[in-house]
Amino acid sequence: MTDQSALKSVYPASAEFVAKAHVDAAGYEARYAASVKDPVAFWGEEAQRIDWIKPFTRVKDTSFAPGNISIKWFEDGLLNVSANCIDRHMLTRANQTAIIWEPDDPKEPAQHITYAQLLENTCRVANVLKAHGVTKGDRVVLYMPMIPEAAYAMLACTRIGAIHSVVFGGFSPDALANRVNDCEAKLVITADWAPRGGKKTGLKDNTDKAMLHCSDKVKVLVTKRTGDQTSWVEGRDFDLNAEMAAARPYCPYVEVGAEDPMFILYTSGSTGKPKGVVHTTGGYLVFASLTHQVTFDYHDGDVFWCTADVGWVTGHSYIVYGPLANGATTVMFEGVPTWPDAGRFWEVCAKHKVNQFYTAPTAIRSLMGLGAEWVEKHDLSSLKLLGSVGEPINPEAWSWYNTHVGKGKCPIVDTFWQTETGGHIITPIPGAIPQKPGSATKPFFGIRPEVLDAATGQVQTGTEAEGVLCLSDSWPGQMRTLWGDHQRFEEAYFSQYKGYYFTGDGCRRDADGYYWITGRVDDVINVSGHRMGTAEVESALVAHDAVAEAAVVGYPHDIKGQGIYAYVTLMKGVEPSDDLRKKLEAWVRHEIGPIAKPDLIQWAPGLPKTRSGKIMRRILRKIAENDFGSLGDTSTLADPAVVDDLIANRMNRG
Ligand code: WTA
Fold it and tell me: What is the 8-class DSSP label of residue 637?
């Protein structure tokens, strides 16, 4: 049993940790105060941590004013991301390991890729891209396993000023095609197969299917991972490994404007179509690099491991760009936490003497359920700090992580941020801010959080407050726009509360000024730390012939945080059955990917709607949560009897 009273305590870092930390309490207070008082001076100085080909003269030019959302940082500066992540380390770190690659199968050898090798491989990929006509500003989609080639390809794009968009390897061919088409990519880089957890996914096969829905001008570069056979379309498919071997080992980097787009990352929003979040070059790199160093208290020589996939923003900022900009050694792991056994994470930590370990609460919860003996088997004495990301970490998981993995001596940084924010925005800075389990604690430098009343938009001025989390000023890592749709950008983030960036999250601020994120207040759910738009799952369901209507909500799930609960109304004449339920699950996997598969499907003869036809999701959420005693006002429903049927046949009775 967890001692609940202990979880209410405050946990400062040890004196030993604080003594070595980059930032202590006084340092945090001073730098935070300076960062909000004079952002121009603060960021002008912090931006010196990266190399500029041409220094900027303007630091900040940002506006959250309605009708004029415009965000520019270091605008007239020129730089190159790959030069910052690789070339500038060559004098001092050419033979230092940049990437430790740990394959899915522990019997396969790990690879240690030095900065010198990273330079050569990145240059070779850059030359291959150039040979295929990719130039500055072109979009390149990456659909890859967690292999070093993914990092080479990302860095190669930045070297020539191309814009990458990484699509998570777990997404379906349809999802891939939509992204390729939305950003009008010239080229897709993929691999033959992606091994994961002892199984393999046919990435090339999926790409072939996706390409049926894309322009026939799109080329496909294929890297070999397993070497198993795939089909080949002459003239469209090219062998990346062969072309890299034949390419020149050096490629000069180009000058890129600080505000030129660096990458697009598609993420779920409250409407059906995923949003193409655009990050630009200078501000993003400054912010990723600073947060990586400060939040994780990264020191030269440390081995840093973020367990995310490069298909998510966490992988962008904290596997590739933040660590490499800082000259770090970063671990890239192809596998899963539970294969070949539930000790894999800890085996890898011991094997590579990991110093900072960063993962998601969902992984902790699933490992916790399998028993602490899997942790105890491995020597975790190298660990200095632990991190958490993706959702609030529940006290039980926090306590287990702290006791069994951190042995009570590692600070746990609960980092709150989003695809849109580029890097951590609310996070304990470990040597400075004592932790409270479940709280992301305090704002990072330059971040100005405000708690607004959700309904009135009133700024809550007291220290203790509850409402929605908004930010009142820009920071360098902020997204700049949605690809091809600046109006949607303004509507999605700036229209609800005028003059503020709205995170979409609810939050509470306690008497010590600590922030507690309470979860999304929009129609986005958080499944195993992955964002999923309920509207996306709904549109997938209604695309099936048997389905007339669907409504999807989240419900509490022990391991995943939230599970996906779908209410489905079938077409007239279609009979519900377990077989159909399985078919619909498979359909959603096929349409979006395995992460979107509904956990529970309830057959709904009707959905609760207002007389104007709007689905009352509040009621559906309550029923899915098995909390139907307090449904609130149902008098505006067109047909209140619908609700009784839904309650009687609810799927979650836990
Ligand atoms: C949630 C992942 C509480 C939140 C980096 C946010 C969190 C969404 C935390 C962004 C945390 C992320 N505590 N909630 N430490 N970190 N979230 O874009 O709801 O995949 O809005 O970025 O995850 O998810 P995204």
Answer: B
Does any ligand 1 atom lie closer than 6 A to the CB of residue 356? no
- C-alpha angle 461-524-206 in degrees, rounded to nearest 5: 145
Confidence of residue 7 (pLDDT cuts 50, 70, 90): low
Which residue lies with its CA nearest to atom 10 of ligand 1?
Answer: 418
Nearest alpha carbon, ligand 1 atom 23: 390
Feature table: binding site for Mg(2+): 542, 544, 547
SS (H, E, C) 469-491: EEECCCCCCCCCEECCCHHHHHH
Instruction: Compute the average pLDDT of residues 289-315.
Output: 98
DSSP letter at 490?
H
For residue 19, count other CB atoms closer than 10 A to its CB. 10
505 CB near ligand 1 (under 6 Å): yes
What does the alpha-carbon distance between residue 220 and residue 188 come to, in Å, rounded to a whole number?
Answer: 5
- For ligand 1, is residue 413 a contact (CB within 6 Å)? no
ipTM at complex level: 0.99
C-alpha angle 461-504-39 in degrees, rounded to nearest 5: 60
Residues in the chain: 654
Ligand 1 mean position to 419 CA, how many Å? 8
531 lines ligand 1 (CB under 6 A): yes
Extract the tokens encoding 406.
């951190």
> Nearest 10 degrees: CA dihedral of 48, 51, 52, 57?
0
Q: Positive or negative, the Cα torsion across 304, 382, 349, 301? A: positive
Distance from the alpha carbon of residue 390 to the mean position of ligand 1, in angstroms: 4
Q: Is the peptide bond before 434 cis (omega within 30 degrees of 0)?
A: no
Q: Is 313 in the pocket of ligand 1 (CB under 6 A)?
A: yes
Q: Report the predicted TM-score, pTM, of the whole model to 2 decimal places.
A: 0.94
Which of 286, 252, 254 has its CA nearest to residue 54? 254
Mean pLDDT (whole number) for 203-218: 98
Residue with tokens 């549109």: 539
- Residue nearest ligand 1's atom 22 by CA: 418
Residue 117 structure tokens? 């090798």
Do residues 126 and 118 touch, judged by C-beta distance below 8 A? no
Q: Closest residue (by CA) to atom 13 of ligand 1? A: 392
For 356, the token pair is 């900072």
